Amino acid sequence: RRPKNFPPGPPVLPILGNILHLNLKNPLEDFEKLRKSYGNVYSLFLGPRPSVVINGVKAMKEAMRPGKTVPRFTAQSGGKRFCTLCNIVLEHRRKSAVLQMFLQWKQLTDCDVLCSCTMLFCAIVSNISFTGKTLTPQIMFHNVASNIMCQVVFGTRYEYDDEFITTIVQSAIEITKAANGPWTTLYSSFPWIRKLPLPFNKSFKAVKRCSDLVLQSLNEHKKTRVPGEPRDFLDSEDSTFSEDKLIFTAIDLMIAGTDTTSNTLLTAFLYLINHPHIQERCQQEIDRVLEGKDQVCFDDRHQMPYVQAVIHEVQRIANTVPLSVFHCTTKDTELAGYSIPKGTRIIQNLTTVLKEEGQWKYPHEFNPGNFLNDQGEFVKPDAFMPFSAGPRVCLGEGLARMELFLIMVTLLRKFKFIWPEDTGEPDYTPVFGITMTPKPYPMKVQHRL
Ligand code: HEM
Known about the structure:
By secondary structure, this protein is an alpha+beta fold. Helix content is 45%, strand content 8%. It is built from 14 helices and 9 strands. The strands form 3 sheets. A 4-stranded mixed β-sheet has the order 1-2-7-4. A 3-stranded antiparallel β-sheet has the order 3-9-8. Strand 5 and strand 6 form a beta hairpin. It starts with 27 loop residues before the first helix and ends with a strand. Protoporphyrin IX containing FE (HEM) binds next to helix 3, helix 10 and helix 14.
């Protein structure tokens, strides 16, 4: 039963709750139907527990506001380490010195990110050793994003064929793949299935493989560490953080920082390849601003309003983390006139904000005009929330924005990206998950003169 003055929602079945109302492979369309029936703040029972789904920019802003009607949400564990991203980070955020360490380490310079771009550039060049060769970008974008996170966490960049990074990338793909499937919802909704030999057990094995590698690196770090002079995240010194927590936080950071950025890059190139006029206009702006310069730097973005608009439009259309990370009310709370008891799971449907009619000039099409005013200047509407909002906004936002700009500008400056003629029509529909993943696609790459 719904508590008194709780947000409305569909009728609830015993034990199953509303689970049958959702296509667990991709519940976004069902969420939209429910929003149309019950409004921007409605409730669902995923198993025996009530959840509140928040939609649209107005309700989202109210819900995420610090110290007001909904003071603070805290992320909720799905039980064993399987479906909740960054649990430990969330528990310790703001009060942990370890997190202060991370905040320090995430401030990689342009130069660090550019070194990783150069490695990506070399990988592309060796792949297209003769003009116009077709390549599949999935693993390359994963490698570049993962390598940047390796620098933050382990203080090292790896060659793409190094066993350490290949194991980490492969395990991270397995973990997110398992976490992205319908088993995640079932796992977090019905605690009694957790002991059964079901597919999510595969991802526990991948977590173990990752944690063994991180432990190995941590032991190496300990041999050469100088107190007071941390070199990276693993060098963090904080007595409140056990070794186990440090290892799992390192894995969380690797996963949070890899899949998000790489899937955004994949979406970017899928759209740019199939909108050649937009790709060319970016290249013209890049050529003009970088004329006579060897390399781009992050500050150059201020001279590139069109490129900025394209990157933001890519993030809007990519909708990379569609349901954000589940939150939970930390005390009895009023929201949009409803009463939500302490401990209620909160699902932020960011999709509804990024495509909300009335907030965007072209809500349903890929159009950089969404971020340009009549004078061609870059503007960022309030509804741009791919990193969520409020006190729990993505911890890696600054780093992600720098990566997307530097990687995209470096690649677009050097190469022309083309849709191979024999590939058929592009399929823009991503695979649903904690992160949305474009379906694999090939691309032809040519050096620009
Ligand atoms: C395009 C790239 C990215 C997108 C779209 C994205 C999006 C998000 C979203 C929606 C959340 C949930 C925020 C909330 O709970 O309200 C989040 C959390 C988080 N992200 Fe990202 N993210 C990206 C890249 C990164 C990177 C590169 C890192 C690591 C450096 C990172 C680290 C984190 C962490 C640690 C959290 C948990 C923060 C907390 O609540 O304490 N993210 N991200």
